[in-house]
Amino acid sequence: MLFDSINPATDERLAQVPATPPARQEAMLQQAASAARAFAARDITERAALLGKVATVLTQNRDLYARLITEEMGKPITEARAEVEKCALTCRHYAAHGPQYLADEAVALGGPTGRIAFLPLGVVLAIMPWNFPFWQVFRFLAAALIAGNTAILKHAANVPRTALAIADVLRCAGAEDGIFQTLLVPSAAIASVIEDPRIAAVTLTGSAAAGRAVAAIAGRALKKTVLELGGSDAFIVRPDADLDRAAAAAVASRYQNAGQSCIAAKRMILIGGAAEPFLERFIDRAARLRSGDPLAEDTAIGPLARADLRAFLHGQVTEALAAGATPRLGCALPAGPGCFYPPSVLDGVRPGMRAYSEELFGPVALILRARDDEEAVRLANDSPYGLGASIWTRDIAMGERMARALECGSTFVNAMVRSDPRLPFGGTKASGYGRELAAWGPREFVNVKSLWIEP
Predict the structure, then answer these.
(1) Geometric angle at alpha carbon 192, from 191 and 193, rounded to 5°
(2) Is-catalytic flag, 262?
(3) Among the options 87, 262, 331, 339, which is catalytic?
(4) Which domains does the chain have, with CATH numbers?
(5) What is the per-residue pLDDT across 261-320, written as a single tens digit (0 to 9) for each?
(6) Which end of the chain is less enclosed by CB atoms within 10 A, N or C?
(7) Of these residues, 72, 228, 358, 444, which one is catalytic?
(8) Alpha helical stretches, state H, 300-383
(9) pLDDT digits (tens, 9 = 90+) for 335-374
């Protein structure tokens, strides 16, 4: 079997990468299990030093990796560079703070010595998506490695060269054989890997459907899972908001990576008199975004990553239009090669439409209107997803009250939703469970062990 690497901006086949043969897969699993024992025994400061070297490799080769990302999945080159830099930042964060995050905790027992230790589980299998093909991997990997685990990556089928490049990053940093490996297999073959007794835990970033499938397999094998799934984030604008600031953030959040982000602002919930003044600013900014060659420095929107993804997105849009939604911008397939889709705005989205309840993974903003704060919160929570949300208001106390009422893993007041290595990241409802980043990330992949010691 061969994995095609196709440039979504030109439809050009860049390479064909062979799948991992069964004998090599078996050797990789055995190597990961053997390396896990030795890696767990190493002092955490040594693991931190390795992450520091990984960060250096990423920084030194930033432009090389960024171009690979852009060619293979279409992300504008400026965003691809920022993605690589964020990976390096996160590795440095865990190199600096990992020993503190995983230090033993003392427990007062009134006589005996009590400690809680955080010990590695073994081999972590990661099933990762294509939309942030470096960041999604390093977001789990830095946490897993600092905790003393080894890792095997099953990456998305359309980014095989990126998957292999990540393995090269670890090799260049001096990681021993087996600490991190890339497994190139089709999704249909991953069940047997999850079930393999040498796999201790599984982490997946992807769709809700993929999460359910992986969780079911891992559950039967009684293995820990962390799932970061889809999102349909609300972007709530109150009438007292700084509308220029809110519109600029909304455009950046919705159209970054051609809208292919779980934490993009997908549903603009506009309260009362904020609606039309905000929309005027938002549409004006969105219409001026430059779409084109993702390797060009001034390109703001590249292509979607695959033709089937564009077709699915446009199907959601056309169904909404047929059901009565209004196109305020875009919403039409462009002519020419590549998987491009224009910045689009769908107004009048209502319950019953697919677009209302489904995630739109592309550059299409949905407009919903609310009478007041209470209805805005109700609309925001009326979603199967619960990843992130943002609220825009000059009333900070009200913003925080609303933030606490929203059913999601993180809410930002007067800022766009983002992941940050200093804060836990994850969702609720169909957006998954478990947390990545901060101290919570590495602690997802450990045995939380109680120690009771008497003289």
Answers:
(1) 90
(2) yes
(3) 262
(4) 2-229+431-453 (3.40.605.10), 233-421 (3.40.309.10)
(5) 999 999 999 999 999 999 999 999 999 999 999 999 999 999 999 999 999 999 999 999
(6) C
(7) 228
(8) 307-322, 354-357, 373-381
(9) 999 999 999 999 999 999 999 999 999 999 999 999 999 9
